[in-house]
Amino acid sequence: MDYDRIILGIDPGTVILGYGLIGIKGKEISLITLGVLKLSKYEGHPLRLKKIFERVLNLAEEYKPDELAIEAPFYAKNVQSMLKLGRAQGVAMAAALYRNIPITEYSPREIKRSVTGNGNASKDQVAGMLGNLIKLPEIPEYFDATDGLAVAVCHYFNNQKVSSTKSYNSWKNFLSENPDRIKNPKK
Predict the structure, then answer these.
(1) Does this model's pTM top 0.90?
(2) CA pair distance 30, 19, nearest whole angstrom
(3) CA distances from 142 to 54, 87, 151 (A)
(4) Taking the CB of residue 13, how many other CB atoms lie within 10 A of it?
(5) How would you class 165 by CB atoms within 10 Å of its CB: exposed for 0-12, middle for 13-18, buried for 19 or more?
(6) What span, in angstroms and rounded, lies between the C-alpha atoms of 126 and 152?
(7) Which residue in 8, 14, 80, 124 has the most C-beta neighbors within 10 A?
């Protein structure tokens, strides 16, 4: 299919990296692919970073995304974990920059709020909403894949003038203002 835009979303990690690619045609969102890169089998942090760079570069070469959206590292009590996560994010960004792909970063809360209307939504809720929005054939084994997909969808919604900072006082209010975000079971 010929898309107006392709967005690559990445949920960086040093054990599992999740990614999702969506194609935009008009106002329609289509799933291109989603998956994970399992890094636990690689010894040492530098080798894992190399594998992240290679995978993101391969995704860029294969699917030719127009934009990369990536989850920002969040505050963690363990400084070493935060540093490793930041390196994973940086390497993924470097691969995109190597292919001249513009990058936008989103916080975990922004991503959840954009996709579900609730910045504190669980990974299961995010995956469920994505299943409705994009008609996933099935929820993947690893939520890291749907997390990567959620980053791409968040970026799409933010570029459609849907504010990720808008708050809603109820699900009814969210759904009434975002009717395109829920599947109609009567169709």
Answers:
(1) no
(2) 15
(3) 21, 22, 15
(4) 23
(5) exposed
(6) 13
(7) 8
pLDDT at residue 187, rounded to an integer:
47
φ, ψ of residue 69 to 5 degrees: the values are -115, 135
Higher pLDDT, 75 or 134: 134
> What's the CATH number where 48 sits?
3.30.420.10
CB 35 within 8 A of CB 145: yes
Tokens for 169, please give them: 């006082």
pLDDT of residue 160: 77
> Rounded to whole angstroms, how far apart are CA atoms 112 and 140?
18
Kindly list the catalytic residues. 11, 71, 144
Cα Rg of the chain (Å, integer): 16
In a domain, 166, yes or no: yes
Note down the domain range covering 167.
Answer: 5-181
Query: Is residue 186 situated within a structural domain?
Result: no
Q: What is the 3-state secondary structure (H, E, C) of 42-65?
A: CCCHHHHHHHHHHHHHHHHHHHCC
Q: How many domains does the chain have?
A: 1
Structure-block tokens of residue 135 = 């008609």
The answer to whether 24 and 8 have CB atoms below 8 angstroms apart is no
138-184 pLDDT, tens digit per residue, is 888 999 999 999 999 999 999 875 444 455 556 666 667 767 666 55
Q: Is residue 161 part of a domain?
A: yes
